[in-house]
Amino acid sequence: MASRKRRQVPVIVLSSDDELEQIKPASRQMSLSHYLSQSSQGDKRQPLQLSQPPLKKAAIQLTKTTADSSRVGAGATTSTAGTLGTAKQLSDHQAMAAAATAASRPAAEELWIDKHRPKAEADLIVHKKKVAELRGWLEAQASTTSRHAGTLLATGPTGCGKSTCIRVLAAELGYELTEWQPPVPTLWAEHQYQAASGVRYVSKLHAFEEFVSRSKLSSLSLLRSTAAAQPAAEPASQHSQHSQPALRPAPKKIILVDDLPHAGDAEQRHRLADALGELANTARCPVIICVTEAASRSQGERGAGAAASSSQGLHKELMGVLDAAGAAHISFNPFTTPNISKALTRIAAEEGYSLASADVAGMADSAGGDLHNAVATLQLVCTGKAGRPAAPGNAAKKGKGRGRKTKAAEPESTLQSSGVARDQSLTIFHALGKVLYNKREDPDAATAADATAATKSKKAKTGAPARAASQPAAAVRAEGEQDVLARLRGDACETSSACVSVVSERFRRQPLPCDPEAVLTQSGLDASSASSFLHENMLEFLQDCAIEDAAAECGYLSDAGVLMSSFHSGATDWEDGNTAAASMSDAMAGSVVVRGLLFSNTHPAVRRFLALKAPASFTIQRAVAANLEELKALVWRRSLQSMSCFGGSARMFAAEGLPYVRCITALTNSPFIGAMLPARWSSVKDGHIHQQSAAAAAAQTGAVSEMVDSVEQLGLDDEETIEDW
Amino acid sequence: MLWVDKHRPRKLDKLILHKDIGANLKKLVEVGDCPHTLFYGPPGAGKKTLIIALLREIYGPGVEKVKVETRPWKIQLPSRKLELELTTCASNYHVEMNPSDVGNNDRYVVQEIIKDMAKSRPLDIKGQRGFKVLILNEVDRLSKEAQHSLRRTMEKYSQACRLVLCCNNVSKVIEPVRSRCLCIRVAAPQKEGIMEMLQYVAKKEGIELPQPLSSRIADASDRNLRRALLMLETCRVAQLPLTDDQPVQLTDWELYIQEVCNDILAEQTPKQLYLVRGKFYELLTNCIPPELILKRLLICLLRKLDDELKHHAAELAALYEHRLQEGQKAIFHLEAFVAKFMNEYKKWSISMYG
Description:
The complex is a heterodimer of chains A (725) and B (354). By secondary structure, chain A is mostly helical. Chain A has helices spanning 2-5, 17-39, 53-69, 92-104, 112-115, 128-143, 162-172, 188-195, 204-215, 244-247, 266-282, 303-309, 316-324, 337-351, 357-367, 371-387, 392-399, 409-417, 428-437, 448-467, 479-494, 496-502, 516-523, 527-537, 547-569, 579-600, 616-641, 650-668, 671-674, 694-724, and strands at 151-156, 175-179, 252-257, 287-292, 310-311, 314-315, 328-331, 681-685, 688-692. Chain B is of the alpha/beta class and 354 residues long. Chain B has helices at 3-6, 19-31, 47-59, 106-119, 144-156, 175-180, 191-205, 211-220, 225-238, 252-266, 270-285, 290-304, 307-326, 330-353; strands at 37-40, 67-76, 81-90, 94-97, 132-136, 161-167, 182-185. In chain B, helix 5 links the parallel strand 5 (132-136) and strand 6 (161-167). Chain A: Belongs to the rad17/RAD24 family.
């Protein structure tokens, strides 16, 4: 354990190949010196001498990549002290090194995110109410007399100030913050190398369980995370007293769990849930659990999965455990763009850079509420600027300031040209809302020339899927799209009057405020789940009389269904499938769905709050799969008894045999025929799967025979109509 | 045992329907060399009965001693190792399987099993190496890749094993496979044939079947013999001395679709569409094939429609049935059909009644 703690491996997360080239020399040097520092065991000063140009370059690169690395999860990027200061995970050990580094290194070397970390409550730009809420909780913990300390769950997206807020307030209220220190992630190769020296591998989850069981004891020899310098290895005997609050009034402890182990499968989740529940129930000092909401930043993951399985970034099961333990819950919201720009302006001013307010706004906007990211971006931009006299990005923007409407896109593009800004993302429900509510721009508000140009280009584009949905004109999405868009816009400008008459009245729509494909991309949904979500919810967003819109929407969904499958059957090569073709056809399907829905919804329902539902089709699919399994087993069993008459086809048996078999069993109670009923049958009620045993199913057959009675009437009815016709 | 199973003819010369096919198959076996065969026809026409009778003709009664086993298969692919489970029903002479059970991996499984069978060839009566028969059900549900791989395998291993393919829809079997097989069309029996069969079974069971009832069962069965026999048995269970005017039981899902049909005609709004969607989900959960749902719904609708609308409905149904075959997400296509039809119906009723 001890030897691993000392390892401070620089983890460099690269976002693309060309950066690799740039960073190689730097990283080689670093790892070399790192190696040196390791070989001269225990000399912590060694890394500090690295403050040389290459490191500086590496530091910039690293800053740049923090934006991307945020999704890798803080746990994976245990940083070199002070270089990649995500600073969240700093154990006291690393924090000490960081403090030492900060002391000896010139100020410019430090990351701004650490340098300008708020020191007092007044500096926090987190919403006042949240701060007050947190403060209230902390104060309540101080005054409580109950033996069991409280638990707090702090959730929020990355960089919304959860940890900072907690640290600042804890310090102000005189708490001592104790952080669970997760084991350093070990690579398999590393492990093999170390195994000889007797170091055992400890999984993060296991370490957490161990921590929980230790935290029950008052003689908690946990390591401290506050950078308050003095070595943490206090003799355990010093606070081994059992009645801690009475005898040790001084700094009260708070346990902060900032980095929960990742629980991939059900079994791990179960273990984690147990550990969490135990922690919440038995801990002697207040526990704060910080959880990053992954769902709102669903860049890497499949959006649907994230929405289905996690709320507030935690799995439902874990939430349930914490709720049962009476945990308080504070959810932090992402910072608003003005808040971030204020903070950025302040930092820039303190550093002595002056930035155009539009640039700052652009940075703030592209950060998407992530202050951490915004500050990193700021530092990178400013570092680049130090060499350059003027801000070229600013001048460029003045030049093409026509695109007034795409306010967010313009500064983003200047930043993006320097490769800084992160991709914007949307929450699933935000993205779905954009499509379902079908908000259009008001034509009167739009001003003269360029506005109409934009209108027309969009109109022309919107018309395209309507004319030929199977013809994927709407789906030129990758680089090509920019060209197409530009060309369309150009055409529209030239022949503005002709363009109006091209499309007949019923195909005209008001311009869209957003780009449908961009919405889809930002939401991180693939076509299949996007269409499922939209399908589930679309009917509620239509006026009651608008069946023709519903018909058109359904038609587009059906088109998309075909497009989606064409990549399933067509593009699967002998090997692992043709991914390029697959993603193309997926993109086309997505485009058809989104544009089709936007186009055909001409009678949107009166705007009101409508809860979006998760698609029922997922549950149905699971139920169908379960039933089919049952049936298959059954059909095979039957074919053993007597050469089966259903050709081994489960579906055929469900359609033809099963209803009669049910009837016959209901009427005769013959056990022999009853054996032909499936043992379990799943049905879906209110979005949940219910499994019935054979007995219940038999009871259900009663219902069937009731239905039989009603059928007789229906049957008669039928015959009459037949005679009619 | 259900009557359908109990009274199924086991030998080619005991056939009551499709006697001509039986005679031809018999000749084929006598000649000694049985080609690959492909049986196709609508459900309940007697494909499986013919196949089993054919096997018995070739191998004798031993073929009826079957065992069902679920075996794990480990298949080494170029890039990875595939592990899956597949249930097969096998005797010493034949193996029967449902390749569509394994979804996308069907192509590997078919090849692997055929190779496996080729390894253990049984001896025939004269002490020479004979061939085994592999029965593949639902070939029309096989992916195109699997069908293509089948075509090569059929040639390569034709010494060791003969394929008997069985499917409903022959147009979904690729041309090369069809051309390598002896295609045998098993037509749905005529009403007279079904009535004859019903009387035969009733006689065997020792019950009196009134002619009008048997005629009504034959009508309701849609020329599906299996259904007809199940209906007959249900009638017998419901009431012993069978009477002329006894109701004939339809399946529960068909009645449910009747309800859906009434819903569609009652009101044409998005809300109603939502209701219908719920009912479709219910049907799908019960594993009713979407094609059957659409077909039945169309039949129900056509009964109640004005002539002017019938062709619209049929056209839409044809379009979306095709979509069902091509695409994923059955519910999208079913719902699209209903929505489009509602739209047409609304337009029509407005024009009719103002």
